[in-house]
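Bench notes, afternoon.
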Amino acid sequence: MKYYVLILAIFLTACGGAANSNQTAAPTPGVVITRTPAPRQAPDAQLEQQFAEIAKDANGKVGIAAFVIETGQNASLNADEKFAMQSVYKLPIAMAVMKQVDAGKFKGDQEIEIKKEDFVAKGQASLLRDNFPDGTKIPLWHVIEYAISQSDGTASDVLMNLAGGAGEVQKYIDELGIKDMAVKSTEKELGKDQKVQYENFATPNAAVALLTELKSGSSLERERRKLIMDFMNESVPGQDRLRGLLPDSAYVAHKTGTSGTSGGVTAATNDIGIIQLPNGNYALIAVFVGDSKADDDARAAVIAKAAKAVWDKWGL
C-alpha cells in the first residue's frame, strides 16, 4: 500500500510515537478541525427536485441524504428507506474496532495474523488473499487500510472478529443512537447467500448520522477518526461515484458498496462520504442505488451527479 507508511507516520506523530514529536505534519483537508454540526435548516426544495430527476436514470430505487455540517443545509430523497449496504458496512466495523483501540484492548501496531481460513471466496474482493496466498501478519492499522481503502473482504471479516462479532459492531452503532442501520453478517456469509445482503442495511439518513459521528463525534479519539478518513480519502473502488464529476483535487473521504447482478438487476450500488466543498464547508452525503436495472455506468452516474449537485449548490 503506497500510502501506508506515510499515514502511519502521521498517526504516530499525533500519538507521540516513533515519529519525531517536534515535527508537525501538514494538516489533511477535512479531518483536522472538529466542528459541532449546525441545526438543520428547512430542506432545500430545489436540490431535492434535482435529486428526483437524477434518480430517474437508475431504473430502480434511489435514496439520498445530504447535510452540510457548518450551515445545517440539507436535502434528501427516500432518505428513510432501507437499502442493502454491502461494503459500506465496513465503515462501522472499522469504527467499532477503533473504539476498542481507544479502550486499550488493541494497539495500532499490534501484529494481526491473517490465516488462509480467513480468506473470503475467490469471487469476492481481497488483495490480502491475492497477495498473501499462504497468509501473513500485518499491523492492525494495515488491516483497517485494506478494509477501507481497498474494500478487502478478508480484512473486513478479520476486523469484525476482532471487534467481537457482528453483535458488538451493532452494539457500537446502537450506542451512537443511530437508528435503521444493521450489521449482522460476515463477508463470507454475504458471499454465500445474496438474500443476506438485505439484512445488512442502512437508510441514507442513518449513513449520514454515522458520517457525522466520524467527522464531528466523540465516540472515537480524533486521531482514530483522522486515520479512518485518510484511508477513505484514498479509497480505490468507486472513482466514478461521489468523486466522478468533482475536481481531481477534491477531498472526498468515501466508502463504496456494490453487489453482484442477478437477472439484470443489481441490488446495491452505493457510496457515502465526506466532501470538502469549494467554500471550505463539509458536506456529508449518502447515495444508495438499489435493485437497479441500469448498467454500471448509469448507476455510478446517478451517484456522481448527486454529489456534483451538492457541490454546485452548497459550495459557493
